[in-house]
Amino acid sequence: MTERNAFKMNGFLVLLLMLMLVAGAIYFFINLQFIIIGILMVLLAVVLLSGMLIVQPNQAKAITFFGRYLGSIREAGIWFTVPFSISKKVSLRVRNFNSAKLKVNDVEGNPIEIAAVIVFKVVDSAKALFDVDNYEQFVEIQSETALRHVATKYPYDNFHDEGYSLRGNTEEIAAELAKELQSRLTVSGVEVLEARLTHLAYATEIASAMLQRQQAAAIIAARQKIVEGAVGMAQMAIDKLQQEGTVELDEERKVTMINNLMVAIVSDKAAQPVINAGSLY
């Protein structure tokens, strides 16, 4: 079912007509010989009153008449619509939903805790009211389902810099979560404005082990950078000495110099130089 515009008239004009009918009925009731006309005018005023409704800002009212959907009124104000119809209101304001912390397994089977905030609004009042039982509850359930589905497609962390990870690609994960949610919530007339992860962590039972793994990976990565820099600095030093002709280095002295530079740069502690006062040999 798709939303459409319902019949409506300016409510103030109809309200003025109702007041005129009531005033006329009072006049005819005073003149007892026209009581029937007064009763008819009162009945007509009651009929008009049954079609009056007030629409608040950022609100829509779906009009049904004996079980048939006639349309929706979105414009704020006082309106007159089909008499004896029933109106159901739905808010068009932007709302957000904070999911509970869900415990799921990532693509590698590691248990993680994840939560998200979903920002949404109703864009089709007919679908929100008549195509699903309770659209707010529907949003909550589908949000958690989509979050679980996205979380199981990626690893928590990527130690090899290949592909996406939940921790390292938050923007991409948020975009995919919003797309996944929109495909699920279209049937309820809801538009997803934003979806963001608010909590992401390893489950308690493996948090300590995974922290040690992250620390080890960070140490290895740092060591690789240090070694690459040390090799480049040693090579640059030898090339500089040879270009300027400061000293002549044979292969054995080059090896010794490279070894000393590598030890001084790569070592965790400050190097303690040993001064050789005699010959190298």
From TrEMBL:
The keyword Membrane applies. The chain crosses the membrane at residues 12-30, 36-55. It comes from Desulforamulus ferrireducens. It comes from the Bacteria. This is Band 7 domain-containing protein. The lineage of its organism: Bacteria, Bacillati, Bacillota, Clostridia, Eubacteriales. Residues 50-214 form the Band domain. CDD domains: SPFH_like_u2. InterPro entries: Band_7 (IPR001107), Band_7/SPFH_dom_sf (IPR036013). Keywords: Membrane, Transmembrane, Transmembrane helix.
